[in-house]
């Protein structure tokens, strides 16, 4: 049996700005599986914090709605001079 992680999984995506509300309400319907944070509403940049043990459910939702959302993964870069950036 696998142990459940104690911390949220954090992922970043770019989605259609007009669909941010759809994703937020969809995840809220599955109470407690994740939180959508809008980082840039014009670009559709979001941070998705996924509750421990819920990664597979969220993956299935994103897979099912990916075309509607125009979902793209996004990897934020560490700012120069930020702790851990070496700069």
Task: Write the topology of this structure.
Blueprint: E1 9-14, H1 20-29, E2 34-40, E3 45-50, H2 55-69, E4 72-74
Antiparallel strand pairs: 1-3, 1-4, 2-3
Q: What is CATH's topology name?
A: Alpha-Beta Plaits
Number of domains: 1
Per DSSP, what share of the residues sits in E-state strands of 2 or more residues?
25-35%
If you compute it from the alpha carbons, what radius of gyration comes out, rounded to the nearest whole angstrom?
A: 14 Å
Helices, by number, come to 2
The succession of helices and strands, N to C, reads: EHEEHE
Q: Span from first to last CA? A: 42 Å
Structural class: alpha+beta
Q: Spatial order of the strands in the main sheet?
A: 2-3-1-4
Q: Please identify, by name, the CATH architecture.
A: 2-Layer Sandwich
Mean pLDDT: 89
Helix content: 25-40%
Outline, from the CA principal axes?
A: globular
The low-confidence parts are: none
According to DSSP, the number of beta strands is 4
In quaternary terms, these chains amount to: single chain
**CATH C-level:** Alpha Beta
Instruction: Give a short account of the largest sheet.
Output: 4 strands, antiparallel
Labels describing this entry:
25% strand, 4 strands, 29% helix, four-stranded antiparallel sheet, 87 residues, alpha+beta, Alpha-Beta Plaits
What does this structure look like?
The protein is an alpha+beta fold and 87 residues long. It has one domain (9-74): Alpha-Beta Plaits (2-Layer Sandwich). It is 29% helix and 25% strand. The chain is built from two helices and four strands; from the N terminus they run E-H-E-E-H-E. The protein has a four-stranded antiparallel beta sheet, covered by helices on one side. Strand 2 (34-40) and strand 3 form a beta hairpin. The longest helix is centred in the last third of the chain and has 15 residues, at 55-69. The mean pLDDT is 89.
